[in-house]
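Annual report, structural modelling task.

Input specification for the magnesium ion complex:
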Amino acid sequence: MKVYISEKEIEQKVQELGEQISIDYKGEDIIAIGILKGSMIFIADLIRKIKSNVEVEFIFASSYGDSTVSTGNVKITHLYENKISGKNILLIEDIIDTGLTLNKITSQILLKQPKSFEVCSLFVKKDKHKFEHKIKYCGFEIPDKFLVGYGLDLDGRYRNLPYVSVIEDFI
Ligand code: IMP
Ligand code: MG
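The model returned the following structure:
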Protein backbone atom coordinates (compact mmCIF):
# COMPACT_ATOMS: atom_id res chain seq x y z
CA MET A 1 0.00 0.00 0.00
CA LYS A 2 1.48 3.31 -1.05
CA VAL A 3 1.70 5.96 1.65
CA TYR A 4 0.19 9.26 0.53
CA ILE A 5 0.55 11.06 3.87
CA SER A 6 2.73 9.37 6.47
CA GLU A 7 2.03 8.71 10.13
CA LYS A 8 4.81 11.17 11.00
CA GLU A 9 3.38 13.96 8.79
CA ILE A 10 -0.07 13.47 10.31
CA GLU A 11 1.34 13.52 13.83
CA GLN A 12 3.22 16.74 13.11
CA LYS A 13 0.13 18.39 11.64
CA VAL A 14 -2.10 17.35 14.54
CA GLN A 15 0.48 18.80 16.92
CA GLU A 16 0.48 22.13 15.01
CA LEU A 17 -3.32 22.29 14.98
CA GLY A 18 -3.44 21.56 18.70
CA GLU A 19 -0.92 24.29 19.44
CA GLN A 20 -2.81 26.86 17.37
CA ILE A 21 -6.13 25.91 18.99
CA SER A 22 -4.52 26.15 22.45
CA ILE A 23 -3.34 29.69 21.66
CA ASP A 24 -6.66 30.81 20.19
CA TYR A 25 -8.79 29.42 23.04
CA LYS A 26 -6.49 30.34 25.92
CA GLY A 27 -8.63 30.63 29.08
CA GLU A 28 -11.76 29.43 27.25
CA ASP A 29 -13.52 26.07 27.53
CA ILE A 30 -14.19 24.16 24.32
CA ILE A 31 -16.88 21.71 23.29
CA ALA A 32 -15.25 19.63 20.57
CA ILE A 33 -17.88 17.86 18.48
CA GLY A 34 -16.55 15.03 16.34
CA ILE A 35 -18.40 13.81 13.29
CA LEU A 36 -18.50 10.03 13.36
CA LYS A 37 -17.21 7.75 12.33
CA GLY A 38 -14.40 9.27 10.27
CA SER A 39 -13.14 11.79 12.83
CA MET A 40 -12.74 9.32 15.70
CA ILE A 41 -8.97 8.91 15.43
CA PHE A 42 -8.28 12.54 14.59
CA ILE A 43 -10.33 13.89 17.51
CA ALA A 44 -8.73 11.41 19.93
CA ASP A 45 -5.25 12.59 18.92
CA LEU A 46 -6.14 16.28 18.59
CA ILE A 47 -7.74 16.81 21.99
CA ARG A 48 -4.58 15.50 23.67
CA LYS A 49 -2.67 18.39 22.04
CA ILE A 50 -5.10 21.06 23.31
CA LYS A 51 -4.32 22.77 26.58
CA SER A 52 -7.76 24.36 27.23
CA ASN A 53 -10.56 22.43 28.96
CA VAL A 54 -12.20 20.26 26.32
CA GLU A 55 -15.49 18.41 26.49
CA VAL A 56 -16.10 15.90 23.72
CA GLU A 57 -19.40 15.21 22.01
CA PHE A 58 -20.29 13.43 18.79
CA ILE A 59 -22.60 13.69 15.83
CA PHE A 60 -23.18 10.71 13.56
CA ALA A 61 -23.42 11.54 9.86
CA SER A 62 -23.46 9.39 6.74
CA SER A 63 -23.89 10.06 3.04
CA TYR A 64 -21.57 7.69 1.19
CA GLY A 65 -22.93 4.17 1.74
CA ASP A 66 -20.51 1.75 0.09
CA SER A 67 -19.30 4.19 -2.57
CA THR A 68 -16.52 6.75 -3.01
CA VAL A 69 -19.03 9.39 -4.12
CA SER A 70 -21.43 11.27 -1.81
CA THR A 71 -25.07 10.37 -2.35
CA GLY A 72 -25.89 13.98 -1.42
CA ASN A 73 -28.44 12.63 1.04
CA VAL A 74 -26.82 13.42 4.39
CA LYS A 75 -28.25 11.53 7.35
CA ILE A 76 -27.49 13.09 10.73
CA THR A 77 -28.00 11.77 14.23
CA HIS A 78 -27.14 14.03 17.15
CA LEU A 79 -25.53 12.15 19.96
CA TYR A 80 -24.82 15.14 22.16
CA GLU A 81 -27.15 16.57 24.75
CA ASN A 82 -28.20 20.18 24.66
CA LYS A 83 -24.76 21.72 24.98
CA ILE A 84 -24.48 24.29 22.21
CA SER A 85 -26.04 27.55 23.42
CA GLY A 86 -23.44 29.94 24.81
CA LYS A 87 -20.54 27.48 24.34
CA ASN A 88 -17.38 27.56 22.23
CA ILE A 89 -18.13 24.91 19.64
CA LEU A 90 -15.28 23.39 17.67
CA LEU A 91 -16.57 21.00 15.04
CA ILE A 92 -14.04 18.29 14.20
CA GLU A 93 -14.21 16.70 10.75
CA ASP A 94 -11.88 14.18 9.13
CA ILE A 95 -12.27 15.37 5.54
CA ILE A 96 -14.36 17.93 3.67
CA ASP A 97 -15.30 16.65 0.22
CA THR A 98 -18.50 18.22 -1.09
CA GLY A 99 -19.08 20.14 2.14
CA LEU A 100 -22.73 19.02 2.22
CA THR A 101 -22.39 17.27 5.58
CA LEU A 102 -20.85 20.31 7.23
CA ASN A 103 -23.33 22.74 5.70
CA LYS A 104 -26.20 20.77 7.20
CA ILE A 105 -24.60 20.29 10.61
CA THR A 106 -23.39 23.90 10.79
CA SER A 107 -26.79 25.41 10.13
CA GLN A 108 -28.31 23.23 12.85
CA ILE A 109 -25.61 24.22 15.36
CA LEU A 110 -25.82 27.95 14.58
CA LEU A 111 -29.57 27.90 15.25
CA LYS A 112 -28.72 27.08 18.87
CA GLN A 113 -26.57 30.21 19.21
CA PRO A 114 -23.16 29.08 20.43
CA LYS A 115 -20.78 31.64 21.92
CA SER A 116 -18.38 30.85 19.08
CA PHE A 117 -18.27 28.36 16.23
CA GLU A 118 -15.24 27.11 14.28
CA VAL A 119 -14.42 24.13 12.10
CA CYS A 120 -11.29 21.98 12.22
CA SER A 121 -10.81 19.47 9.41
CA LEU A 122 -7.71 17.33 8.91
CA PHE A 123 -8.19 17.17 5.13
CA VAL A 124 -9.94 19.61 2.80
CA LYS A 125 -10.63 19.07 -0.90
CA LYS A 126 -10.08 22.74 -1.53
CA ASP A 127 -11.23 23.10 -5.15
CA LYS A 128 -14.28 20.88 -4.73
CA HIS A 129 -16.13 21.68 -1.55
CA LYS A 130 -19.06 24.05 -1.25
CA PHE A 131 -18.89 24.63 2.48
CA GLU A 132 -20.38 28.05 3.13
CA HIS A 133 -18.43 29.03 6.25
CA LYS A 134 -14.75 29.55 6.84
CA ILE A 135 -12.56 26.59 7.80
CA LYS A 136 -10.37 28.11 10.48
CA TYR A 137 -8.28 25.00 11.15
CA CYS A 138 -7.28 22.99 8.10
CA GLY A 139 -4.67 20.24 8.25
CA PHE A 140 -3.92 19.34 4.63
CA GLU A 141 -5.40 20.82 1.46
CA ILE A 142 -5.64 17.93 -0.97
CA PRO A 143 -6.73 17.37 -4.59
CA ASP A 144 -9.94 15.50 -5.37
CA LYS A 145 -8.76 12.01 -4.45
CA PHE A 146 -10.47 9.39 -2.29
CA LEU A 147 -8.38 8.86 0.83
CA VAL A 148 -8.41 5.99 3.32
CA GLY A 149 -6.67 5.42 6.65
CA TYR A 150 -6.36 7.33 9.93
CA GLY A 151 -10.13 6.98 10.46
CA LEU A 152 -11.14 7.37 6.81
CA ASP A 153 -12.88 4.37 5.28
CA LEU A 154 -14.06 2.84 2.07
CA ASP A 155 -17.24 0.92 2.89
CA GLY A 156 -16.09 0.47 6.47
CA ARG A 157 -12.56 -0.70 5.68
CA TYR A 158 -9.07 0.77 6.17
CA ARG A 159 -9.91 3.07 9.11
CA ASN A 160 -7.19 1.40 11.16
CA LEU A 161 -4.30 2.28 8.84
CA PRO A 162 -1.97 4.60 10.79
CA TYR A 163 -1.15 6.53 7.58
CA VAL A 164 -3.26 7.76 4.65
CA SER A 165 -3.40 6.20 1.16
CA VAL A 166 -5.19 7.12 -2.05
CA ILE A 167 -7.73 4.48 -2.96
CA GLU A 168 -6.56 4.01 -6.61
CA ASP A 169 -3.29 2.79 -5.13
CA PHE A 170 -5.07 -0.23 -3.64
CA ILE A 171 -6.61 -1.52 -6.85
P1 IMP B 1 -18.95 15.68 2.31
O1 IMP B 1 -20.32 15.85 2.87
O2 IMP B 1 -18.98 15.32 0.84
O3 IMP B 1 -18.04 16.87 2.57
O4 IMP B 1 -18.27 14.42 2.95
C1 IMP B 1 -18.16 14.32 4.29
C2 IMP B 1 -17.86 12.92 4.79
O5 IMP B 1 -17.68 11.94 3.78
C3 IMP B 1 -16.57 12.96 5.54
O6 IMP B 1 -16.82 13.25 6.88
C4 IMP B 1 -16.02 11.58 5.34
O7 IMP B 1 -16.46 10.73 6.39
C5 IMP B 1 -16.58 11.11 4.02
N1 IMP B 1 -15.56 11.29 2.96
C6 IMP B 1 -15.44 12.32 2.09
N2 IMP B 1 -14.37 12.18 1.30
C7 IMP B 1 -13.76 11.05 1.70
C8 IMP B 1 -12.55 10.36 1.29
O8 IMP B 1 -11.78 10.79 0.41
N3 IMP B 1 -12.26 9.21 1.97
C9 IMP B 1 -13.05 8.71 2.96
N4 IMP B 1 -14.16 9.32 3.39
C10 IMP B 1 -14.52 10.48 2.77
MG1 MG C 1 -16.91 8.30 6.20
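The mean pLDDT is 92.
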